[in-house]
User: What shape does this take?
Amino acid sequence: MKLIPLREENTDLFKKSIQEAFQYGYESVYGKCDDIVIPDEDIEKNLKNDNSFAFEMIDDHEEMIGGTIVTINENTKHNHLDILFVKVGVQNRGVGQKIWKEIEKMYPETLIWETCTPYFDKRNIHFYVNRLGFHIVEFFNEKNPDPNEHQENFSLNEGMFRFEKKMIME
Assistant: This one.
């Protein structure tokens, strides 16, 4: 496995794979859903951010098996994990952890990593807390809305955990 910058010709597959992975996660908890959990415009917003970088994890046959989008702030060194996904059918093989370890190596100057995940996704919560070393630092809900999100676009089932990982500088 190898993490490489997103190849332009794979952008559509990358977006589709993100949507399938998040749809699968949602539907495994709540059942079939006709709404798209992560619409194209949300992914596009992350991809087009000037400080964002997209990477795809490829296998030995150069097939995409996962990927990530991160936003890097060179000034504050407080960076954000926007999206991390593993393709449906490839989960439980250490791909997500491998993606994250590569990202940490690529951005060693980071002081704090931040990310969010829906409250219902126990699998993601376990992954971020128990596998990657993040800590839950805030719960966004109707009484404590995320200041970066418009309330009319509030996440499915209305609750998101915000995680942080403080990096140890040697």
The beta strands are 2-5, 52-58, 64-71, 78-86, 112-118, 135-140, 160-166. The two ends are 28 Å apart (CA to CA). The chain is about 30% helix and 30% strand. Residues 2-166 form a domain with the Aminopeptidase fold (CATH 3.40.630.30).
